[in-house]
Amino acid sequence: MDANRVKLKVTNLSKRYLEPPVQALKDINFEVSDGDFLCIIGPSGCGKSTTLRLIAGFEEPTEGTVLLDGKRVREPGPDRAMVFQDLNQLFPWKTTLKNVLYPLKVNRLYSNSQNRMEVAKKHLRMVGLDENFDAAFPHQLSGGMKQRVAIARALALDPKVLLMDEPFGSIDAQTRTGLQVELLKIWEETQKTILFVTHNIEEAMLLGTRILVLGTNPGRVLQVFDNPLPQPRVATDPNFGKFWETLYNLLKQ
Question: What strands lie across the sheet with 63-68, from one edge to the other?
Answer without folding.
Answer: 21-33, 6-18, 63-68, 71-72
